[in-house]
Amino acid sequence: MAGSVNKVILVGNLGKDPEVRAMNSGDKVASFSIATSETWRDKNSGERREKTEWHNVVIFDQNIVKVAENYLKKGSKVYVEGQLQTRKWQDRDGNDRYTTEVVLQRFRSELHMLDTRGNGGGNSGGRDDRDDDRHDNRTDEQKRQDERGFRNDNLDDEIPF
């Protein structure tokens, strides 16, 4: 039995254009925030309610950074899969501060653009869709599900329980 799992999956919209910076190593890192919202109808008043959560995302995978840099913009709808990481830093007064981010490293991370292709969206993550089509044995329905951000993989591969 596996000891633990640290996996985050978010589907939401970018709150601003991605910020891309160069590290000392020359590699790039991209960061942005994603808004996820849930809506419900209040049982007492019948009014429609909405709650929005903001999530900070940081990308270290160079292929995914390129996609974020070239194709994502404020309002883009994305599917993000990564890990939670908390880092500690100090403010100007020397007080310890903490921030928790969804981090996309080189392995076990994904980014899929969920906007329509006409709006600059489509499937991403550093892969070329044309390469996938040559060896793609999925049905048309499975392809449509994948384009909408749903994965139809065999789920029995490495379940930790």
UniProtKB/TrEMBL annotation:
The domain of life for this entry's organism is Bacteria
Basic and acidic residues: compositionally biased ranges: 126-154
Subunit structure comment from the entry: Homotetramer.
From the UniProt record, report the name of the gene that encodes this protein: ssb
Chain spans, region Disordered? 113-161
Q: Which residues form a coiled coil?
A: none
Please identify the protein, giving its name as recorded.
Answer: Single-stranded DNA-binding protein
Gene3D superfamilies (alphabetical): Nucleic acid-binding proteins
Q: Which InterPro entries match?
A: NA-bd_OB-fold, Primosome_PriB/ssb, ssDNA-bd
**Where is motif Important for interaction with partner proteins found?**
156-161
Q: Which GO terms describe its molecular function?
A: DNA binding
What task does this protein carry out?
Answer: Plays an important role in DNA replication, recombination and repair. Binds to ssDNA and to an array of partner proteins to recruit them to their sites of action during DNA metabolism.
Tell me the organism: Hyphobacterium vulgare
Q: Per the record's keyword annotation, is Plastid included, yes or no?
A: no
Its keywords, alphabetically, are: DNA damage, DNA recombination, DNA repair, DNA replication, DNA-binding
